[in-house]
Amino acid sequence: MWFLDPERPLATCVAESCVGCPVGDKLHCHFRFRELAHFMLISAPLFILGGAGIYRISGWMLALWFLMIMGYFGFLEIRVMCSHCPHYAEPGRTLRCWANYGAAKLWRYRPGPMSFSEKFLFLGGLITIFVYPSAFMLLGGQWFLLLVYVVVGAGNFVTVRMFLCTQCINFACPLNLVEDRTRAHFRERNPTPPERSA
Question: pTM of the predicted model, to two decimals?
Answer without folding.
Answer: 0.88
